[in-house]
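Why does residue order matter? Because the sequence determines the fold. Keep that principle in mind as you read this record.
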Amino acid sequence: MGTKTFNARTPSLRWTAISDFSELSPKHKRPEKSLTESLRHNGGRNSQGRMVTRRRGGGHRRRYRIIDFKRDKRGIDGKVIAIEYDPNRTANIALIEYTDKERRYILAPVGLQVGATVRSGPGSEIQTGNALPLSDIPLGSQVHNLELATNRGGQIVRSAGAFAILMAREGQFANVRLPSGEVRLIPVICYATLGQVGNIDHENLSLGKAGRNRWLGRRPASRAVAKNPVDHPMGGGEGKSSGGRQPTSRSGILAKGFKTRRKKKHSSKYIVSGRPR
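Structure:
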């Protein structure tokens, strides 16, 4: 999917670059109603009304598309009947209709076209969009929608343009290089989908104006050094002070050169090599 730019008729259009939606199916402008549910916005507040996530609020109304991350309809062929836009994620989604007439949404990988057939389960063909256990996938393959624990469904490698590479298999575990560069041990019975997540031009988009951020439900963010001392550790000072201390978060945690991962986290034993710094 390419990007669309505009002549600079207004200041905001000068830098705007949006998707041209050329990969989407023109006849499916509305989602499958049975595969959507209401999505209530809470403005970053919890059940007590207290703000727990800042810079959230507003945004266009949208419905959540129920995505089949588990791909647990095994051994049944499904036909791609539409490629659709999903406002809740960076990737596009594909509407699949199985031979028993059940419909499900999956993440649309690069190269998946309307009319193609997808399948999940052991022994499925090695082709884009099929879901197989890591034990059945050839080494060196690109995969996405990767499980970390069996039957839990894909949890990682789900954003636009993302892919992981199956490096090796050793006993009950496979070495997988994640998009961050980290190499991790994942059980070979876990499922992954072949191919790279579609909409790879998403990284080239430019919002162009602050209003487009508000449409997405993102509120403005103030710089820490522009705040008062009561609001942030880096606030205050005479004139345009640069903080007068090391950069920190609002709670005082160092923002640079400080690892935030817990040293005794149980999953650390599955990391073969960490992310390059």
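The chain has two domains: 1-23+206-219, 24-44+59-198.
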